[in-house]
C-alpha cells in the first residue's frame, strides 16, 4: 500500500462549497431529512445519520446485509416511510408529513423523478434534486448535500476521497481493453441488466463491458435471458448478486461450461452493511469500483484491496475493521 496515497485518501482537503440552485433554506434549520429513494437515503447515512427520519425499506433485505456491527443503532430503529419504487414499501405520504421533514432529497436520475417531485411538492416540503447516477457525479453530490444539511466539512472530506479514487482508477485503466462481464441476478442467475442500465454503472466504470446489450425498459431492470444466450456470450467474468445462488452457480455442471466459471472468475457482490455495487447504487460504489477494477484488471489496478476496504469503512461508516472482518467481507 502506497503510504502517500493512503494518507491522501483519508485527509481533508480544502475546497470551495458549490452554491445550491434549488435549496434556499438556512442549513442550520435543516435537522430532519428524508431521501425519497434509497440512493439518497444512504447518502444521508454517510453524511449525517442523525438527521435521517426514516427508511425506504427494511434495513436488512436480500440485497443489503445491514449487520448491526457496521451500523448506528438509531439507523436500524428508524421507521419505514417507504419509497415510490415498486421494489420497496410504497411511500406513505401521511407518515412523511407527520415526520415534518425540513428537506426531502430527490434522486435526479430516477426514472420516476417527475412523479416524485410532483408528489413531494404538493406536500409543501422543500426539496433538493441530486444527480447521483454516474460515478463522476458522486463527489459533487456529497458536497452539495453536505452543504445543504449543515454537514459541509463532512461532505467535502468524503468528496475528496472519492475524487482521488476516481482519478486513480481512470489513470490505472487508461488504454486497457474492457473485460467482458455478465451480471447474474435472480434465483437462477438468468436475470440481468442492460449495458446502459444505471444498475451496472459501477461495473462499466471499473473497466467492464456488459455482454448483454439492450435498452432498460423499466426501473427495476432484471431482464430475463436463457442459458443458451449466456453460453453464446461466454463472458470473461461473472458478477453474482445473490449469496444464496452463488454456490449453486459455481457447482452447476451447466454453468461450468462457461470460461469465467472454469477460470474461477465468478464473484459474489459484498453486501455489508450495504450493497457495494447496486440495489441500491449508493455511496458504497466508492469501494465497489475499487473491488471491481481489481477483479476486471488485476494487473493494471494492482492495489492493496484490504487496506482500501479498511480505509473506506473507517471514513464513510466510522467502523474499524479487523483483519478477519475484511477477509469475511471479501470472501464468497
Describe, in plain words, how this protein is organized in 3D.
With 332 residues, this protein is an alpha/beta fold. It has two domains: 3-9 and 16-170, 3-Layer(aba) Sandwich (Rossmann fold), CATH 3.40.50; 175-330, Rossmann fold. The chain is 39% helix and 10% strand. The strands form three sheets. It has a four-stranded parallel sheet. Helix 6 packs antiparallel against helix 7 (152-173) and helix 7 runs parallel beside helix 12 (285-296). The radius of gyration is 20 Å and the shape is globular. The two termini are 24 Å apart.
Q: On the 0-100 scale, what is the average pLDDT?
A: 90
CATH topology of the largest domain: Rossmann fold
Alpha-carbon Rg, integer: 20 Å
Arrangement of strands in the largest sheet: 6-4-8-9
At the first level of CATH, the class of the largest domain is Alpha Beta
* Count of beta strands: 9
The overall number of domains is 2
Into which percent range does the helicity of residues fall? 25-40%
**How large is the share of residues in beta strands?**
5-15%
Low-confidence stretches: 1-25
- Multimerization state: single chain
For the sheet with most strands, the description reads: 4 strands, parallel
CATH level 4 superfamily of the largest domain? Nitrogenase molybdenum iron protein domain
Order of helices and strands: HEHHHEHEHHEEHEEHEHHEHHH
Amino acid at each position: 500500500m502506497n503510504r502517500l496515497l493512503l494518507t491522501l485518501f483519508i485527509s481533508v482537503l480544502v475546497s470551495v462549497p458549490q452554491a445550491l440552485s434549488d435549496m434556499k433554506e438556512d442549513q442550520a434549520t435543516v435537522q430532519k431529512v428524508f431521501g425519497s429513494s434509497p440512493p439518497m437515503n444512504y447518502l444521508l447515512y454517510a453524511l449525517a445519520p442523525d438527521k435521517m427520519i426514516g427508511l425506504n425499506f427494511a434495513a436488512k433485505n436480500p440485497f443489503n446485509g445491514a449487520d448491526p456491527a457496521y451500523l448506528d443503532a438509531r439507523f436500524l430503529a428508524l421507521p419505514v416511510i417507504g419509497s415510490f419504487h415498486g421494489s420497496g414499501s410504497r411511500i406513505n405520504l401521511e407518515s412523511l408529513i407527520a415526520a415534518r421533514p425540513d428537506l426531502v432529497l430527490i434522486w435526479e436520475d430516477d426514472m420516476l423523478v417527475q412523479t416524485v417531485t410532483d408528489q413531494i411538492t404538493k406536500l409543501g416540503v422543500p426539496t433538493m434534486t441530486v444527480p447521483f447516477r454516474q460515478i463522476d457525479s458522486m463527489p459533487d453530490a456529497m458536497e452539495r448535500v453536505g452543504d445543504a444539511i449543515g454537514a459541509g466539512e463532512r461532505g467535502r472530506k468524503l468528496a475528496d476521497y472519492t475524487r482521488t479514487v476516481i482519478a486513480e482508477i481512470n489513470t490505472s485503466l487508461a488504454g486497457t481493453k474492457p473485460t467482458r462481464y455478465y451480471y447474474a441476478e435472480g434465483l437462477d442467475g438468468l436475470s440481468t441488466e442492460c449495458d446502459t442500465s444505471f444498475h451496472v454503472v459501477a461495473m462499466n466504470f471499473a473497466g467492464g463491458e456488459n455482454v448483454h446489450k439492450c435498452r432498460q425498459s423499466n426501473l427495476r431492470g432484471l431482464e430475463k435471458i436463457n442459458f443458451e444466450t449466456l453460453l453464446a456470450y461466454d463472458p470473461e467474468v461473472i458478477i453474482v448478486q445473490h449469496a444464496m445462488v452463488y454456490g449453486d452457480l459455481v457447482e452447476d455442471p451447466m454453468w461450468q461450461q462457461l470460461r469465467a466459471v472454469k477460470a474461477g472468475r465468478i464473484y459474489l457482490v459484498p453486501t455489508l452493511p450495504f450493497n457495494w455495487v447496486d440495489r441500491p447504487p449508493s455511496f458504497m460504489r466508492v469501494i465497489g469500483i475499487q473491488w471491481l477494477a481489481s477483479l476486471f484488471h488485476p494487473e493494471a489496478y494492482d492495489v492493496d484491496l484490504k487496506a482500501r476496504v479498511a480505509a473506506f469503512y473507517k471514513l464513510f461508516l466510522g467502523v474499524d475493521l479487523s483483519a478477519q472482518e475484511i477477509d469475511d467481507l471479501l470472501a464468497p
